[in-house]
Specification:
By secondary structure, the protein is mainly α. It has 7 helices and no strands. Helix 4 runs antiparallel to helix 5 and helix 5 packs across helix 7. The longest helix is centred in the first third of the chain and has 27 residues. The relative contact order is 0.08.
Amino acid sequence: MKHSTTQQTRRGNRGPARRIGRTLALVLPVVLVLSGTLAVTRVNWSGNPSNSVLTASDVSTAGGASRSVVRAPQDLLRDRLLTQLQDKDPGVVLTHLQEAVNGHPSLSEHCVSIARALGRAAVRIYGASRAQSYARPVCDTSFASGVAAGHS
């Protein structure tokens, strides 16, 4: 028995699967990077829900005064409660403050400043002694400290 002297090597005969694999290995990372970059430009970073595509003109006017200012929830709550203080007694307003904080725990860190502002406003509206009569332990008695600050 004689063995064949010609050796067939698999290395010299690389098929189409190997070429496709190499092409994908080179092209796929480029496609992924480009698609990721395009996805980031489509994210609404401006906070304006009407237009989710950020364009070059948006970037140039981002610091301009043409944009409307979105107010923080704690500022809206403070203004609403100060308006209610004009029509209702501070006890009712403090109850609304406590309900708002209980309903939205993220407002709890602003409760002290809101209660102090209500206390100062109550002194201007009702006078120091009458405003102090409504004080109760909402937000660590911050309303009472606001009354004291508004009185002095």
